[in-house]
Specification:
It contains 3 helices and 4 strands. The structure holds zinc ion. Zinc ion binds next to loops.
Length: 91
């Protein structure tokens, strides 16, 4: 896996427990952050990811919108599921 796509941190953002919708902020390589959207139905499933524009994209280094995280959504989702990152930030 590209080290720039390695998740170094995760924090809870918005949630709508009734609808089973959750958002988390992840930190990737080079300090890049992304917002990930999850649905619990009943298993956790990632429904989307967008990069926050705090720093240039760690993959293509564009300062503006790009689709790098979207293209790598599967890699990001797998880390969150396999490392059980959601339960580490939800109580
Ligand atoms: Zn990019």
């Amino acid at each position: 896996m590209n080290a720039k796509l390695q998740i170094r941190g995760i924090a809870a953002s918005d949630k709508n427990e009734k609808a089973g919708l959750y958002q988390f902020i992840i930190t990737l390589g080079e300090g890049a952050k992304g917002r990930v959207f999850f649905k619990k139905d009943p298993e956790w499933k990632m429904t989307g990811v967008t990069r926050l524009l705090n720093v240039p994209c760690p993959i293509c280094h564009k300062d503006y919108y790009c689709n790098c995280l979207e293209k790598n959504a599967e890699v990001i989702e797998r880390q969150i599921i396999d490392q059980d990152l959601i339960s580490s930030v939800l109580d």
